[in-house]
Amino acid sequence: MKTIIFGLGNFGISLALKLTETGNEVIGIDLKMEKVNLVKDKIAHTICMDATNELAYDSIPLKDANLAVVAIGENEGAAIITTAILKKLTKAKIISRSLSPIHDTVLKAMGIEHIVHPEQEAAEKLTSKINLKNVIDSFNIDKNYSISEIQISEEMSGKTLQELSFRQNYNLNVVTIIRDCKKTNLLGNKMQKKEVIGIPNNNTKLQKNDILIVFGNNSDISTFGAHLAG
């Protein structure tokens, strides 16, 4: 996917690097050359330009982009103007960062459907980690239910989900399992990496260091995490 990111602050740079790592072609744009220089050798292409100047857009391959992300985080006015220009010039999907409730209102009035709040979302994610004991990571479905990653205890290793009566004892559904697997690379060197094993059943036997991906009520996830922590 070809993505153009406007704004190379902490959020913009992190997003650009992650998208690049996962096989996307990323163009990063910022008004400040020092920010452009930080990632110029790490992503497909970088451009120093004023994103609030509509005439400057002639120099970027906007028509080839699948996605445009407005990640500007220092200037609310510039973020809104940039989004408005993109709305006018491209049919690509637009994701815009919001800096305030008023910013939210303006973006919605412009017809922007995909609005992100990086700081708020990071705080909510950290809160979930703190509240859901022994949880590695968690994704909230709503205020009551989550999908969470939980490291099993040594006592659970070698037992099947049926032997553990997992659903009955913990009131959680195991969606899948992330497991350490040994692989041999092209040079013949053995390496260990984590892989998803697919959809488990009652006869699936847990192994040491397995990470369970579970779905359920937050209170049940917290109780299970507390049980593992002893």
TrEMBL record:
RCK N-terminal domain: residues covered: 1-116
Pfam entry (one): TrkA_N
RCK C-terminal domain location: 134-230
Name the UniProt record assigns to this protein: TrkA family potassium uptake protein
